[in-house]
Specification:
A four-stranded parallel beta sheet has the order 1-2-3-4, with no helix packed on it. It is α/β, with parallel strands linked by helices. The protein is globular, with a radius of gyration of 11 Å. It has one domain: Leucine-rich repeat, LRR (right-handed beta-alpha superhelix), CATH 3.80.10.10. The chain starts with a strand and ends with a strand. InterPro entries: LRR_dom_sf. This is ATP synthase subunit s, mitochondrial. It comes from Steinernema glaseri.
């Protein structure tokens, strides 16, 4: 299962939490790009996405402490190829 969230103005942090709870173990590819309502709090929920093989994070202007959150995700998902340009 693949999901691309690009220029998605309606997705927010709790939306990522919901997706992770519902399909995080089955989702293999996730792209989150130019989604203005996503913050570092939402990205922390990506640690629930245990099925991910590839993750792309790009142009998320409201994410602070970028390096810290990317390291948390990498630690939780060691088998996931992560590309981040926040």
């Amino acid at each position: 299962m693949d999901v691309q969230l690009v220029n998605c103005k309606s997705i927010h942090d709790f939306g990522l939490e919901y997706i992770g709870d519902e399909v995080g173990d089955r989702l293999q590819f996730l792209q989150i790009e130019k989604c203005p309502r996503i913050t570092e709090f939402g990205l922390k929920h990506l640690t629930k996405f245990t099925g991910l093989k590839s993750l792309i994070l790009k142009d998320l202007p409201h994410v602070h402490e970028r390096d810290k959150i990317i390291e948390e995700i990498k630690k939780a998902l060691p088998n996931c190829d992560i590309h981040a340009n926040l």
